Amino acid sequence: GQQLNQSPQSMFIQEGEDVSMNCTSSSIFNTWLWYKQDPGEGPVLLIALYKAGELTSNGRLTAQFGITRKDSFLNISASIPSDVGIYFCAGVNAGGTSYGKLTFGQGTILTVHP
Amino acid sequence: EAQVTQNPRYLITVTGKKLTVTCSQNMNHEYMSWYRQDPGLGLRQIYYSMNVEVTDKGDVPEGYKVSRKEKRNFPLILESPSPNQTSLYFCASRLAGGRDSSYEQYFGPGTRLTVT
Question: Which residue among A33, A88, A101 places its CB closest to the CB of B104?
């Protein structure tokens, strides 16, 4: 089945630093979603991307839909302590027998030191 | 407030004792889904429903049942829970599809289940 490779698995950074993480797939996706999960809570949608090459921002977050449709990137600028959590990418396959199914990356655990 | 709610948030039970985790959404979403989250394995889909009375297996359906009698509710049923079903469970919902924004899926707060 489809697999998403998300990297890095974890990051330890200082407050104020920029963060980059990415997801790559062996398959093409029609939509990329980025989520953040705080400890003990459900994932919260941060950014949705619909077109290859699309670059979308949400505050200090910027995400891009890769031109090959097989990858996506998330950047966080000027990190703050509340950015701590697990970040997930998810690709959506809108065709074939997997219509609309989300495939999730394994997550990137972000720790921000004050 | 638009949301997905789950109950209970925490549950400790014993092997073989039937349980139900409820899920409800107030966004009039057609599509609902259940996931389990385990360390090192990420989020795995258990069952999903495209609409009322339409359900289908996800990637890890063994040991679980679901029903979709009403659009807003999608309960997860464990007929005979076993310790390997100890996990963090999430319900999620979204629109049916056909538009870009249809795939934006919203998650409930989670139910932490322990089966002893």
Answer: A33
A100 to chain B, any CB pair closer than 8 A? The answer is yes
Report chain A's mean pLDDT, rounded to a whole number.
91
**Pairing label, strands B31-38, B76-78:** unpaired
Distance from CA of B5 to the nearest CA of A (A): 10
Distance CA(A1)–CA(A43), nearest Å, equals: 23
- Tell me the pairing of strands A108-113 and A10-14: parallel
Name every chain A residue with its beta carbon within 8 A of the beta carbon of B103.
30-31, 33, 48, 92, 94, 100, 102
Kindly state the average pLDDT of the residues A18-23.
97
Q: pLDDT class for A39, splitting at 50, 70, 90? A: confident
DSSP at A53? T
E-strand stretches of A1-114: 4-7, 10-14, 19-25, 31-37, 44-49, 55-58, 61-65, 71-76, 85-93, 101-104, 108-113
> Which pLDDT belongs to residue A2?
59
d(C-alpha B48, C-alpha B77), whole Å? 13
Q: Which residues, in sequence order, are CB contacts of B20 under 8 Å at separation 6+?
A: B75, B76, B77, B78
